[in-house]
Amino acid sequence: MDYFNIFNRLHFKDDDEKECFIINIKNKGYYLHKQIYDVYCSYNEDEISYDELSRMVRYDKYIRNVLFKFLATFEEQLRAKLFEKYELDLTNDYNTLKEKKSDKENSNFYWKTYDKDFTFKKLIELIKDKLKELNIELTYVELKEICKLRNKVMHHNLIIFLRSTTYEEVEKEIENIENVLILLYKGLHSEAQKSFMNDINKGNFKGGKYIDNEPNFKRLRLGVFKDGIFTKNYYKEK
């Protein structure tokens, strides 16, 4: 396959970039690069720098890794709260919870979560009527949105682009993702919240420092994550 002919609007600054392009196409996938390239082509009639394309590939992977980490943190928090307060009702095929009557050294609930059919979705179904008792400041509908995000991350597809093939579609996807990340932030404990915001911002700003700094690239990216919300232009334009 003649990749340079297919990606004929890509601009390479030197032969090293061309070599890197071929290596990444083989290791990370032709179709992944083509999806991002086609989106760039949909709104840009000029040449597209390979540097920007490759940085977008790395940025998307970085965001997926951050989400994997903090989705796991959130799930651990939910489990810890549940194990502390509830046991599984053995008389109802493990589908309901009952309050623990005493501090037991062992938990049938804890060991049940090792079963391969005990999914995050199953966890949410079990706690949907216990949110107030567990001091969870999220609704059942919001938890389901976090669950959907978790599934997308686990599939290892592009998270910023998803199925989008145009600039406008990607912008809508970014807005949707930001809304779910705000929910995830609400569900995390305070120390995890700080780390979550900083790690998201590090994807765009060196060290996560966005004040008076421009982002690594200005388009098709998450906004600045500050105080649990996203804003697009918190840095000063230069």
Which band does the percent of strand residues land in?
5-15%
- SS-based structural class? mainly alpha
Order of helices and strands: HEHHEHEEHHHHHEE
Shape: elongated
* Whole-angstrom Rg: 22 Å
Number of helices: 9
Biggest pleated sheet: 2 strands, parallel
Question: Helix share of residues?
Answer: 40-55%
What is the mean pLDDT? 89
Distance between the termini: 42 Å
Question: Main sheet: which strands, in order across?
Answer: 1-2
Poorly predicted runs? 234-238
Based on DSSP secondary structure assignment, what is the total number of beta strands?
A: 6
Topology:
Elements: H1 3-6, E1 10-11, H2 15-28, H3 30-43, E2 48-49, H4 50-85, E3 86-88, E4 97-99, H5 108-112, H6 120-127, H7 140-154, H8 167-187, H9 190-202, E5 224-226, E6 229-231
Parallel strand pairs: 1-2
Antiparallel strand pairs: 3-4, 5-6
Helix pairs in contact: 2-3, 3-4, 4-7, 4-9, 6-7, 7-8
Describe the structure.
The protein contains nine helices and six strands. With 238 residues, the chain is mainly alpha-helical. α2 packs across α3 (30-43), α3 packs across α4 and α4 (50-85) packs antiparallel against α9. The chain is elongated, with a radius of gyration of 22 Å. The two termini are 42 Å apart. Residues 234-238 have low confidence and may be disordered.
